[in-house]
Amino acid sequence: MRFTSETSSNGVREQLFTLGEIPGVLWTPDGATGTRPLVLMGHGGGQHKRAPGIVARAHRFVAGCGFAVVAVDAPAHGDRPKEQEYDRIATDNQARVAAGAELAPLIASFQALVARRTVPEWRAVLDAVQDLDQVGAGPVGYWGVSLGCGLGVPFVAAEPRVRAAVLGLGGALASAGSAARITVPVRFLVQWDDERVPRAQSLALFDAFGSAEKTLHANSGGHGEMPAFELDGDVRFFARQLG
Amino acid sequence: MRFTSETSSNGVREQLFTLGEIPGVLWTPDGATGTRPLVLMGHGGGQHKRAPGIVARAHRFVAGCGFAVVAVDAPAHGDRPKEQEYDRIATDNQARVAAGAELAPLIASFQALVARRTVPEWRAVLDAVQDLDQVGAGPVGYWGVSLGCGLGVPFVAAEPRVRAAVLGLGGALASAGSAARITVPVRFLVQWDDERVPRAQSLALFDAFGSAEKTLHANSGGHGEMPAFELDGDVRFFARQLG
């Protein structure tokens, strides 16, 4: 793990790093030492580790709860090189949708492919970050919607350090098997008029979680219109589950 | 409107009253004067105006937000006389369920019958309570789940003074038409494993609300197992919508 830059704003220290080929960012409270809860955040498709929605939430989790937060670029996103295989799949999928195919199964199948790389990558990131003095081996949470849900479900299912997860804007097509193996508390976010994820698929994914404690929040509006007040709920959820 | 008793605890004044044949209870902050938001609460089936779930929520709305809260007994509930017609319907329904009929449509049809009485009753209660100096004609909210949802949907649809509603544990069978006429913000509570309200009916009711701003919260568990933390969300919702 190699740190490449460090800045600070509003009491939140931001450190860019690389772990092998993976570019990442770690947020911790200024001057923090000792073990604390850690939230791993997965960004959306076409976004990256420092997308505005990720940074805003990371600042709330760090400044409001004293947590550490880490995010990395998914393959072919942010500072990572393009992947010819992914480009080929994307081009194929566009052609299929143009020819009348459904979008959701194509997205799901692509996310399942990417998850086979990100699950081991994210486990390695957890290992490295939890070795740092200002993070340590405290309870871990996961936050991710859209692509961050598609990649997050298999990760949370595979990683016993994760004690609670916020997921959403994703459907059951690729993830139902993994979802059934998740038993930690889940907060699941749905946009009722999501144009990318069919409502039935979204509800089926929530239904598939094996967790005894799970809550679904659905709001009116499309895929990109999640109301800002849900972030308050994310903070309360992680404070309760990890704090 | 005739007040019959008054007590106070933890800064909350509780006044029992009758309005014609309707027994009710009004909660306001101790020593309150002047106009304030008012929440009308509808109790569940077999319960009454001072059921523990109603009293606990009323205290939070009054002590936490400075609101007034009013609840009345539904026909054939609490201090109101039995209704031979309702008893006959209940007996019929038990026989039908024993013979293999579905429960949900029978509940829905019964609630629609009762709502034809409670909508005008509750409008009269609003008129009377808003005439009081310590309540006044401020914004009105409605809270009701289960029977309180079945009776609440037609009430909220009919009553323009209601600016926001918490509803839940109810389905679309009897209420979809009224629900489509509701345009105020709605917070809708679902128990994912509700043994009385089929999940599809519950989701269909949420879908039917005409409101541009609507949020569904679903939690794992049965009809009577709504988690206590949802009350915090009710308080925040009404504070935002009425405060």
Descriptive report:
- The structure is a homodimer of 243-residue chains.
- Chain A has one domain: Alpha/Beta hydrolase fold, catalytic domain (Rossmann fold), CATH 3.40.50.
- Chain A has 8 helices and 9 strands.
- The first copy, chain A, has helices at residues 52-65, 84-98, 103-130, 147-150, 152-158, 176-180, 199-208, 229-242, and strands at residues 2-9, 12-19, 22-29, 38-42, 68-72, 140-145, 162-168, 186-191, 214-219.
- Chain A has a 9-stranded mixed β-sheet, sandwiched between helices.
- In chain A, helix 1 packs across helix 8.
- The mean pLDDT of chain A is 96.
Which CATH first-tier class of chain A would you pick?
Answer: Alpha Beta
| Series of H and E elements of chain A | EEEEHEHHEHHEHEHEH
- Give the largest interface: A-B, 19 and 19 residues
CATH topology of chain A: Rossmann fold
Overall geometry of chain A comes to globular
CATH superfamily of chain A: Alpha/Beta hydrolase fold, catalytic domain
Number of strands of chain A: 9
Task: Describe the structure concisely for a colleague.
The first copy, chain A, is of the alpha/beta class. Helix content of chain A is 40%, strand content 24%. Chain A has a single domain, classed as 3-Layer(aba) Sandwich (Rossmann fold), CATH 3.40.50.
List its traits.
homodimer; 243 residues; alpha/beta; Rossmann fold; 8 helices; 9 strands; globular; carboxylic ester hydrolase activity (chains A, B); AB_hydrolase_fold (chains A, B); hydrolase (chains A, B); Dienelactone hydrolase (chains A, B)
